[in-house]
């Protein structure tokens, strides 16, 4: 679908909200209809889509509010959801269209497919899998949303759910549990987002990595998702759907 559409920005004063404003202001086909932050009462009726990079708590509240009034559609980029917040978003998606992704970059969404393929091909009895990520000093959730998506892809390649393979955070004396998927998170300086999936056997290792160079990358991907999701049928979609990587 083409033509002008109206976007609301949730988390507008944050790092991603500001990056998103810059990307949207440069586009002739999108009008920013609302910008809101903690404590604001947004007029959702002005928006065709709201793009939200805030907190999981705020995103769940927003999803419920949009669902109650039957719109607008949502693009959710916040990460670090707990099970209750996940359930609220799932329930909202029965009434409105929502794209939710821990990473809107094309490269990461291709990496997800590569990781699943490698995990399928590399026998679990020989090959360990570890997910490493590094982010800026202000990031509060760990592992990152992207690291979890990569872990899910690795688990899917092994025909399992991540919850059954995820190793607990390591500390103290304990050998690696066979077949588990481990996570390591670094927080330092202004790092935008680094993700590596390490596959290692006793004889060799394979690393698949992605580096984000500019935060606007995520904003641009979220706008692609916004253009895709407006006027979609209710449902919970992700970037694999937006990019056409998942066939119905
Ligand atoms: N999916 C992706 O591709 C990406 C996801 N992210 C995720 O996006 C989220 C935001 O990241 P970032 O911009 O760096 O974080 P920031 O902390 O810089 O920004 C978050 C913003 O959300 C605001 N906020 C808090 N509560 C509400 C509310 N109820 N309604 C509206 N806004 C609210 C905050 O306001 P206040 O400061 O007043 O609390 C702040 O302005 C994080 O979860 C991060 O992991 C980040 C980059 C890419
Ligand atoms: O908080 C961030 O900055 C980022 N968060 C996302 C995540 O949790 O994976 C995406 C990106 O890596 C930047």
Automatic annotation (TrEMBL):
Record gene name: dapB
Signal sequence segment: none
EC code: 1.17.1.8
Positions contributing to NADP(+) binding: 38
Residues reported in the UniProt entry to bind NAD(+): 11-16, 37, 77-79, 101-104
PANTHER family registered for this protein in UniProt: 4-HYDROXY-TETRAHYDRODIPICOLINATE REDUCTASE 1, CHLOROPLASTIC-RELATED, DIHYDRODIPICOLINATE REDUCTASE
Family: Belongs to the DapB family.
Organism from which the protein derives: Brevundimonas balnearis
Domain Dihydrodipicolinate reductase N-terminal: 6-104
List of residues binding (S)-2,3,4,5-tetrahydrodipicolinate: 136, 145-146
UniProt xrefs under InterPro entries: DapB_C, DapB_N, DapB_N_CS, DHDPR_bac, NAD(P)-bd_dom_sf
Official protein name in the record: 4-hydroxy-tetrahydrodipicolinate reductase
Keyword Transferase found: no
Quaternary organization: Homotetramer.
